[in-house]
Amino acid sequence: MSKADKIKILYVDDEVNNLNGFRASFRFDYNVLIANNTDEAVNHLNQNSDIRVILCDQRMPDKSGVQFFQEIRNEYPNPIRMLITGYTDIESVIDAINRGNIFRYIKKPWTDADIQSAIDEGNKFYLTNNMLAIKNEELQKAYNELDKFAYSVSHDMRGPLLSILGAVEVAKSIDNISEIKEMLELMHKSVQKLDDLIQNVHEYYNLKRGELQISEINFNDVIVGLKDFFDMTGKMSNVKFATVVNQQETFRSDEVCLKIILNNLLSNAFKYQRKNNGDKFVELNVEVNRGNVLIYVKDNGLGIDDIHINNIFNMFFRATSEEIGSGFGLYNVKDALRKLNGEISVDSKINEGTTFKVIIPSK
Amino acid sequence: MIGHKLNFIVIDDSKLDCFIAEKIIRNTGRSENIRSFLDGADALDYISKTLVPADETKTILIVDIQMPVMNGFEFVEAFEKFPKEIQDNYIIFVLSSSINENDLNRVRNYPSVKHFLNKPLTSNTLSALLEWV
User: Fold this and answer.
1) How far is B119 from chain A (nearest CA, A)?
2) Closest residue to B16, CB basis, from A186, A317, A321
3) The model scores a pTM over 0.80
4) Most CB contacts within 10 A, which of A157, B82, B103, B110?
């Protein structure tokens, strides 16, 4: 067992002989930290947030073990506290246990087996507690997302539908064919917005529930499919699209996640262009190097305001009223990257353009 | 009897919804001037630069709730910071697809908001409301 896999424990005692004896007995089974006084112990606690069990002698010159545990309890609630004491201190021990400061006490003189079983019990308790805290946090996050989701679905799904409903109602009383056509164009956009949203919701659930399917990725093949689609988009909106792929080594990843990332970043780059810019472009650069893929998606479009840049990866956040957007795309990108252990950063200047940089390690 | 003329400002991030609102407003026969803004900040800017008309024509503000950048609540809060003589010139109707109770309660708490309307806006509801203006 390497040092990193061992349970980290802290032993506090004012007698150096006890400390050394303890360390000699247990250093093969545990990652043992020792402290000669309570100040030293607090130092260890500050530097090692992963200490799982603290064993402390009751009789020390500066303060008793019970006092020490009472003091650290609020600031370091996670480690399991155990008191080592002779029989004569039993009153204070009972008191401390009853007040919840101590998980268990070990009688002096102890045997190795006593200590071992106490630490193993303590460790189990520690893991259960921690697991519970982590699960609770995850659950809370899931609830919050669900709330946002339900709220937004009522608006984002109903919105376009109600627009169309209103338009149909108004159109009934219009005779002018060119006005009707203008309305049809706007209705078309509403339908598209709704369809985009439904596709994003589909992606969202693929990401949340789906297992990763790792396979060898040839970026040239992936890009060919994307290029066909985005070349067409580019032609319609007058945006030049350039791609560079440089892959000399094998790369393993989940193709669905990669496509979600590329698709969303590219469609944003095409969408958020400056209408009056005569030289609109989008560039995609993919480079596989030493087990990582580095992806740049660059445009010279609207750019993102500094005050919004920290929010762009949040669910349903939209930084602009220009163009249709569901506020879902970049959230899905971030989620996909989380699954692939990837990272994303953004560099943007308003009215100059935006560059997204993505790094994903090969699986 | 056809009532006196009114100005209208529509604030909605959906172009289609602005378009529908403009049509319906025009059909009421009450409109003097109609303006649409996709962004609340632009509307605030416009209001701050608009002088009170000599004939005291009131302006109806029709405001959507959920909009990017500045939502309807933020718009109303900013509007309520204008001096009273400017505010008195406007009547706010909030128009939304929201069926969320919290949203509705929140809207009721703004003194400047006179009515809450559900989307889609129809000629009948708007005409009926304007009878009271």
Assistant:
1) 6
2) A186
3) no
4) B103
